[in-house]
Design goal:
By secondary structure, this protein is an all-alpha fold. It contains 13 helices and no strands. 39% of the residues are buried. The N terminus is likely disordered.
Length: 241
């Protein structure tokens, strides 16, 4: 009889412990979902409050630390963002989004070599994601390694053939590297994929203008101005009258 009572007591204890853990995890997830909604609405204060609650419920919630890092980055708190992303990565060393995000923040702080190390790790974890290649390219370009940057953009585009930002960046760095025809082709590709991409009209126009194609450049600037670009409107006044 005593053994039966002990067995029942142990069962109830384990049931209660597991119930508390399960409730805690579910509660943490609800706070996390609320944080995602608040983040999407740019209510960062409310989102961070939700995430604090999520972490109080589950101190090992790597996604909550990661989202805290991203939000602090958006708020300009770069050093705090890195500390939070460090926590997420410590909990999950193969957290690709956290590694990629930390690389972005490090690049923002002009620590390009450290940023590249994070992007390298993200690429190692999943070589079929285009964004880490794109981000690594930008970091390399800031170190004046244009050739390698363009190679990373090539890879990014080979994975996602509609990656307009990659085409746009490649166009810019090709122009810097002296590949005029390649630059023009990439700017035109951006416009083909997204006719509302005003910066591509301006980039193409300035590249063409510098190579003596003033009439075509001005037409492009006028188109960008018609699409609402204040910069293009100013350039039309300055260069095309």
């Amino acid at each position: 009889m005593m053994k039966h009572i002990i067995a029942v007591s142990v069962f109830l204890f384990l049931f209660l412990v597991n119930s508390v853990i399960s409730f805690s995890q579910n509660s943490a997830y609800e706070f996390y979902k609320s944080a995602l909604i608040n983040d999407s609405q740019k209510d960062y204060s409310a989102a961070l409050h939700d995430l604090d609650n999520a972490i109080n419920q589950n101190p090992y919630y790597d996604s909550a630390f990661c989202l805290q890092g991203f939000i602090n980055y958006k708020m300009g708190e770069n050093k705090l963002a890195i500390k939070l992303l460090d926590k997420a990565i410590k909990l999950n060393p193969e957290y690709l989004d956290a590694l990629n995000g930390r690389g972005i923040v490090k690049a923002q702080l002009k620590d390009y070599i450290a940023a590249i190390k994070d992007f390298n790790k993200a690429i190692e974890l999943n070589p079929l994601k285009p964004k880490p290649y794109f981000n690594r390219a930008l970091a390399k370009a800031h170190l004046d390694d244009y050739s390698s940057a363009i190679q990373d953009l090539d890879k990014s585009i080979s994975i996602d053939e509609r990656y307009t930002n990659a085409y746009y960046s490649r166009a810019f760095w090709k122009d810097i590297a002296g590949d005029y025809s390649g630059s023009v082709a990439d700017y035109k590709k951006v416009i083909e994929l997204d006719p509302s991409y005003r910066e591509a009209y301006i980039g193409l126009a300035t590249t063409m203008y510098q190579h003596g194609e003033k009439v075509s450049a001005c037409e492009l600037l006028k188109t960008a101005a018609e699409k609402g670009s204040i910069m293009a409107d100013e350039l039309v006044t300055k260069l095309c009258n």
